[in-house]
Amino acid sequence: MSQENAEISAKFSTLNVNAMEFVPSFCQERTSVVTTDLMEENRPENNASVPDNDPLDSWDVEDEPVLTPEDEEAEDAEDGDGENDVTPKQSKKKSQKIEESKSKKEHVNVVFIGHVDAGKSTIGGQIMSLTGMVDKRTLEKYEREAREKSRESWYLSWALDTNQEERDKGKTVEVGRAYFETDKKHFTILDAPGHKSFVPNMIGGAAQADVAVLVISARKGEFETGFDRGGQTREHAMLAKTAGVKHLIVLVNKMDDPTVNWDENRYNECRDKILPYLKKLGFNPAKDLTFMPCSGLTGQGIREPIDQGVCPWYSGQAFIPFIDELPSLNRKTDGPFIMPIVDKYKDMGTVVMGKVESGCAKKGQNLLVMPNRTQVSVDQLWSDDDEVTAVGPGENVKIKLKGIEEEDVSPGFVLCDASNPIKIGKIFDAQVVILEHKSIICAGYSAVMHIHCAAEEITVKALICLVDKKTGEKSRSRPRFVKQDQVAIMRIECSGLICLEQFKLFPQMGRFTLRDENKTIAIGKVLKVIE
After folding, report:
1. Is the N-terminal amide bond of 371 cis, ω within 30° of 0?
2. Which of 31, 134, 197, 295 could join 300 in a cystine, given CB atoms 3.0 to 4.6 angstroms apart?
3. How far is residue 421's CA from residue 506's CA, in Å, rounded to a whole number?
4. Is residue 66 predicted with pLDDT exceeding 50?
């Protein structure tokens, strides 16, 4: 028996995991063989190590009120010694109210956008492999599988494109998620789809981001197709700006391609072609726009600076150190809790995912799901797959809720503070900029509106006035129609109730895009919620 046990534990130790985590019965079997009396004595410990048992919750709850923040810190510090410093993060969240601890990493959400096949998923996969988030063995497995499909250059993107359809076609469909950490910050990677049929998914991804990385391919012909009209490079950059991304980094990818071979002229050509357009969108090259050459497949220019022998003309920082150095973002920690729901699934309860836009939430807190006004309580919290007891603004979280069925939640709903819920409305006034639309827009026109994570059909009820782009003056008379490149204030009606807020009070919940026929036709901001 002992020999068997030794063998089993040897097997598990080679895997570098604890047998009891995987096979809860493993620990019980052994005790039962030794003696049943012992097992009776050990029952509470066994239950504690078996994750599925109910007593765990109640046993958690009893402990909670007794602890003072200092005790928690001490306890968590003891727990945290064995693990790779995952637990200390929780303790800091807990004691946040009492004393703000400085070593807590800032959360930054980075979305990768750009045309199909520019190399977004590959760069994401490369970042994860360089920062050690994907182990070598998994990557080798991906490489082997990719080679079998004669797609060996795709293997890095498989770290983010997880389902079969995405791997077979080599196209991202849903927004892939992953995270990595540097010494100062905790980054969440959102890998947006580049294909034009999946732009609605991409908008949901961009709505959660603080920093956008526009990936463009330097390969001859690929940059041109991505940037010309009908390519996704323009549309994605514009949607990122509308989604309120603070900083845009343009990665000129595939510089190692034989047609480019780290040629400075090609890099400058790509940069000079796209710069005027990005300036027009309102990005400022001095403050919130940066260009960098890189190669996603070989990993040059991503974590380590590019070798001078390969690329003598670029001496700037590599990508990861650069985003690590970006100034920290001002977050609303003191406001009411608001989290637009991006996605949901069933897992012994209803789990919702999203990015916390403002405020904090704790385990056991009562919240509301708007616009249905369903009262829920927080059962469990995860911040990027690590279970925590409290979450703050900027974090990408999963929250398990009690008191609501999974069918009753849909993406675009908002989880918010029960005492200070977010506004809901059906009719609102908004200032809208028409970006591209062939014909005119008048009252009665309908389109699809994307606001934070929600997509809702809307109709234009009335045009109120035109706004002069240069002076900002409003026209006296009511316009009969608006056309491309005009700015108008209009009254919009939604087909159902949605959560929204005035733009000047809370920008994340007050900016939207209008799409029609698979094109983004307008962007706007909510001025006033009528009813």
Report:
1. yes
2. 295
3. 13
4. no
First to last CA, the chain: 72
Helices within 50-134 (DSSP H only): 55-66, 69-80, 88-94, 120-130
What does the pLDDT read at residue 5? 58
DSSP of 421-478: PPPEEEEEEEEEEE---SS-B-TT-EEEEEETTEEEEEEEEEEEEEE-TTT-PBPSSP
Average pLDDT of the chain is: 79
Least confident stretch, 39-53, 392-406, 486-500, 501-515? 39-53
> Mind giving me the DSSP string for 83-94?
TTS-THHHHHHH
pLDDT digits (tens, 9 = 90+) for 409-430: 988 899 989 888 888 999 999 9
- DSSP helix/strand/coil, 28: helix
**Segment (H or E) for 108:** strand 106-113
**At 197, which helix (H) or strand (E)?**
none
Q: Using an 8 Å Cβ cutoff, are 224 and 125 in contact?
A: no
DSSP 250-306: EEEE-TTSTTTSS-HHHHHHHHHHHHHHHHHHT--TTTTEEEEE-BTTTTBTTSSPP
Spell out the residues 6+ positions from residue 171 whose beta carbon is closer than 8 angstroms to its own.
Answer: 116, 117, 193, 194, 195
Compute the average pLDDT of residues 254-264. 88
| d(C-alpha 26, C-alpha 18), whole Å | 10
Output DSSP code: residue 101. -
Q: Phi then psi for 196, rounded to 5 degrees?
A: -75, -20
Q: How far apart are CA 90 and CA 420, in angstroms?
A: 26
382-390: average pLDDT: 85
Number of C-alpha atoms within 13 angstroms, CB side, residue 216?
Answer: 34
Amino acid type, 44:
P
- CA 375 to chain CA centroid, nearest Å: 26
CA 146 – CA 506 distance, rounded (Å): 45
Question: What is the number of alpha carbons within 13 Å of residue 444 lying toward its C-beta?
Answer: 4
* Per-residue pLDDT band at 31 (split at 50, 70, 90): very low
